[in-house]
Request: fold
Amino acid sequence: MNTTFLFIGGPEIMIIGLIVVMLFGADKIPEIARGLGKGMRQLKDATNDIKKEINDTANKQDIDLNIAKDITEEINKVKDEITGPIKRNL
Reply:
């Protein structure tokens, strides 16, 4: 089984890990990982705050955020109208 992460296979990940250990040393890796984890958490929290703010503002202004869903439904209706006669003839 070939597992890949971001188009990088297992051997490449091992080589990158070895280079990281050689550059920073084994004792610094937990600190680096903690810092990356905190940074990712802050980014996720900021993204969630922005989404919440957009939703709150849209709700206050009575803006429909489900427009993509409405568009998809309309496209499906048109598809059914177009392909309906074709399906019946087959």
Summary: DSSP finds three helices and two strands in the chain. The longest strand covers residues 4-5. The radius of gyration is 25 Å. The chain has a mean pLDDT of 83.
